[in-house]
Amino acid sequence: MAAAKQVNIAIIGAGGVGKCFLGQLETLAQRRPSPKLVLTYISTSKKAIYNSDYAAITINDVFSKLASSSQAPLAPPKLIEYLKSSGSKTVLVDNTSSQDVADAYPLFLGNGISIVTPNKKAFSGSYKLWQEIFSAAEQSGAKVYHESSVGAGLPVISTLNDLVNTGDEVTKIEGVFSGTMSFLFNSFAPTSGKGGQWSAEVRKAKELGYTEPDPRDDLNGLDVARKLTILARHAGLEVESPTSFPVQSLIPKELESVATGDEFLEKLPAFDSQMEETKAAAEKEGKVVRFVGSIDVASKQVKVGLEKFDLSHPIAALKGSDNIISFYTKRYGSNPLIIQGAGAGGEVTAMGVTSDLIKVLSQVA
């Protein structure tokens, strides 16, 4: 009887998303016995576990093993050598936001190692890296998927690719791409009721775990700009980087250089009047203000910042920390194709990664 096909899984990153992914991988391996999924490598920034004979690493006690491991993570060239020598097809799951790992993607792909990842930096960095990643994959036949780099588990990239690949003409993409910004503006400028003070809402968002440890990392708009860069490129625009188009920062100039996120939060109330004026101007027009990203494909214009919306607009009616992405296309006419739902969180982000892994398995196994 022929031996069952086997696919080796190598994981970099075992934080929030990494933990959720491991749980989903364990379930997937039980539900789909063929090909057999074998975890052969896992690393954090400081430690790793792998066996010279490629023996499977059991998932259920992987965190205690990592804690007591004396093995250091392998640098990308050494890791490629190790994974290639196994003789089995391998998928690298990069659950980090590391630029160094992202820069090595062309090497992994060029050596036949497929990649699934939520790492935005690989696909929103220089346009040269973007080209190198996809050309390496094309040449070797390795696969690369990154659904979770935009909108966590929401099918944003796959939907855009389906539209483009079936010959539809995408004219505009617009939406709320940040769970943090969604939460902030839904509570600061709700469609009904008064809403809170801007600085108080930022503080609340941080306490609830919606913002980065330093809220300026959300308020500078760069996270949204990265996601827009990725989508614009998939739509066929050669966007050079997330800083090559207008991105509105909500950080008051005077607070850009304060030492810590805590100091920023302490000083932010002094600038509440600026955001109050913006909110009041929208209310005078019977509208609400939202932080959105938009891509006008025809004019090749990409921008991120505050926009006013009628109360009946789907973007205005968003709840909680949900994301919403609208695709305006020739086929869909004046009514866009809308994707909406949770755009952040460990389980839904890991779901996007696991879903990408299933796509790779269907193509390589």
From TrEMBL:
<dbReference type="InterPro" id="IPR005106">
    <property type="entry name" value="Asp/hSer_DH_NAD-bd"/>
</dbReference>
<keyword id="KW-0560">Oxidoreductase</keyword>
<comment type="pathway">
    <text>Amino-acid biosynthesis; L-methionine biosynthesis via de novo pathway; L-homoserine from L-aspartate: step 3/3.</text>
</comment>
<protein>
    <recommendedName>
        <fullName>Homoserine dehydrogenase</fullName>
        <ecNumber>1.1.1.3</ecNumber>
    </recommendedName>
</protein>
<comment type="similarity">
    <text>Belongs to the homoserine dehydrogenase family.</text>
</comment>
<feature type="domain" description="Homoserine dehydrogenase catalytic">
    <location>
        <begin position="155"/>
        <end position="358"/>
    </location>
</feature>
<dbReference type="InterPro" id="IPR022697">
    <property type="entry name" value="HDH_short"/>
</dbReference>
<feature type="domain" description="Aspartate/homoserine dehydrogenase NAD-binding">
    <location>
        <begin position="13"/>
        <end position="147"/>
    </location>
</feature>
<comment type="pathway">
    <text>Amino-acid biosynthesis; L-threonine biosynthesis; L-threonine from L-aspartate: step 3/5.</text>
</comment>
<dbReference type="InterPro" id="IPR019811">
    <property type="entry name" value="HDH_CS"/>
</dbReference>
<dbReference type="InterPro" id="IPR011147">
    <property type="entry name" value="Bifunc_Aspkin/hSer_DH"/>
</dbReference>
<dbReference type="InterPro" id="IPR001342">
    <property type="entry name" value="HDH_cat"/>
</dbReference>
<keyword id="KW-0028">Amino-acid biosynthesis</keyword>
<keyword id="KW-0486">Methionine biosynthesis</keyword>
<keyword id="KW-0791">Threonine biosynthesis</keyword>
<dbReference type="GO" id="GO:0004412">
    <property type="term" value="F:homoserine dehydrogenase activity"/>
</dbReference>
<dbReference type="Pfam" id="PF00742">
    <property type="entry name" value="Homoserine_dh"/>
</dbReference>
<dbReference type="Pfam" id="PF03447">
    <property type="entry name" value="NAD_binding_3"/>
</dbReference>
<dbReference type="InterPro" id="IPR036291">
    <property type="entry name" value="NAD(P)-bd_dom_sf"/>
</dbReference>
<keyword id="KW-0521">NADP</keyword>
